[in-house]
Specification:
The chain is α+β, with helices and mostly antiparallel strands. It has 16 helices and 16 strands. Bound molecules: adenosine-5'-triphosphate and magnesium ion (MG).
Length: about 425
């Protein structure tokens, strides 16, 4: 290829990193709007942290031998030689920021965040290299009341989005660090006995992260895994009581759940409560929300011991789920209400002013002004293509009478001539 060929080659987006196109953004905005309102209703405050952090933050919190840190992080050297990483998740940054600004000093916090995360995974439906999460993190509360609250918060979101009957809550307890360490030995002994059944990935994990083997989706290991000892049978007393109380709170609140003794999380910092909301409607990328307690993390990152619980949900998967199940309300389609159309250039000024006035009088109105002139025929074509339900036509006659012609673009209905002064009222009724 010659030099000039190379320079003309179209530059494309990075694999696994998506553009959000205009036709998709209304659904995202609908989802994000619901989330924002919901968080306020539960008294959670938004926190925004940088997308880039020191690599050590993630290595120390998520764990050196997790998939994320071992092979999924976008890590690079800054111009001054520091090792930086595009955040693969939100919790570590949230803890870093809360510590740095003294938010954890003798107080509790209920925080939420939203934004892009980066992991170098194999891109497929529901799994991308840049993806987006909404997360909540609550600090300084021991639970299980707060564990129940974050679960109820997520459940309310599913209900509001119409997703409740399509998702399942899976629940487990990972116990205390001591109980986990003792269980780990038991588990490793069991896996050693069945070494011939372990796949390569699991053999690698046997020394570093044996609990994660329980999470394997390899069907050839299913039978062996079913017989593995269960951490839930070896919990410490305090964790058992915590778990039982949480289950009781969820029962009382009418939240269905399935106890899954093999539910572990891919991040090292979890202990006691862990949970996932899963769906069968998205193939193998079925987890839409995952979280749990991470009481040890703040201390691990150099702070005072601080209890914490949180979750993160994947926005792409939830949007995909709404699309798959056709649960998209009209408000999430982003359609225009009104196309304001000057029929010739002489009407441009009046049309511009009228559109402004209507936007002022009807704050919910979605109105687009025809710009760019053109023949009457091409103007009408544009009105039709705009997707608006109504068009407001302004020509010589309308200007002379201070009226406007209201045309129905999507219904069999006669057009109406209305005084400009009465337009807001008529539109208010029509669009209610
Ligand atoms: P999975 O088992 O699907 O890889 P995970 O355990 O790595 O998920 P978490 O780190 O707990 O996921 O992230 C919380 C949520 O973020 C997931 O449940 C999922 O909805 C979403 N998520 C995680 N990784 C991706 C990705 N690469 N692309 C899209 N969404 C993702
Ligand atoms: Mg993963």
């Amino acid at each position: 290829m010659s030099k000039s060929d190379t320079s003309k080659k179209k530059i494309q987006a990075i694999r696994g990193m998506n553009d959000l196109l205009p036709e998709q953004s209304p659904l995202w905005q609908y989802f994000e709007g619901r989330v924002r309102t919901l968080m306020a209703r539960y008294g959670y405050a938004e926190i925004r942290t940088p997308i880039v952090e020191q690599t050590a933050l993630f290595a120390r919190s998520i764990g050196e031998v997790t998939d994320i840190v071992e092979k999924e992080m976008y890590t690079f050297e800054d111009r001054n030689g520091d090792s930086l990483t595009l955040r693969p998740e939100g919790t570590a940054s949230c803890v870093r920021a809360a510590m740095e600004h003294g938010l954890l000093h003798n107080q509790t916090q209920r925080l939420w965040y939203q934004g892009p995360m980066f992991r170098h995974e194999r891109p497929q439906k529901g799994r991308y290299r840049q993806f987006h999460q909404v997360g909540v993190e609550s600090f300084g509360l021991e639970g299980p009341d707060i564990d129940a609250e974050v679960i109820l918060l997520s459940a309310r979101l599913w209900r509001e989005l119409g997703l409740m009957e399509h998702v399942t809550l899976e629940l487990n307890s990972l116990g205390s660090a001591e109980a986990r360490a003792a269980y780990r030995e038991r588990l490793v002994a069991y896996f050693e006995e069945h070494r011939e059944v372990l796949d390569e990935d699991s053999r690698r994990r046997l020394a570093s992260n044996p609990l994660r083997i329980l999470d394997s989706k390899n069907p050839e290991m299913a039978e062996m895994l079913a017989g593995a000892p269960r951490l839930l049978d070896h919990l410490d007393d305090a964790s058992r009581e915590h778990f039982e109380t949480l289950c009781g709170l969820l029962d009382a609140a009418g939240i269905d759940y399935v106890i899954n003794p093999r539910l572990v999380r891919g991040l090292d910092y979890y202990g006691r409560t862990v949970f996932e909301w899963t769906t069968t409607a998205l193939g193998s990328q079925g987890t839409v929300c995952a979280g749990g307690r991470y009481d040890g993390l703040v201390e691990q990152l150099g702070g005072k011991p601080t209890t914490a619980v949180g979750f993160a949900m994947g926005i792409e998967r939830l949007v995909l789920l709404l699309e798959t199940l056709e649960l998209i309300p009209d408000a999430a389609r982003g359609e225009l209400d009104l196309y304001v159309l000057p029929m010739d250039d002489a009407a441009t000024g009046t049309a511009l002013q009228l559109a402004e006035r209507l936007r002022g009088e009807l704050p919910g109105l979605r109105a687009q002004l025809h710009c760019g002139g053109g023949s009457f025929k091409s103007r009408m074509k544009k009105a039709d293509r705009s997707g608006a339900r109504l068009a407001l036509l302004l020509g010589e006659d309308e200007l002379a009478e201070a009226s406007a012609t209201l045309k129905f673009l999507r219904e069999e209905r006669d057009q109406q001539s209305l005084p400009q002064a009465a337009l807001a009222e008529t539109l208010r009724e029509l669009l209610a």
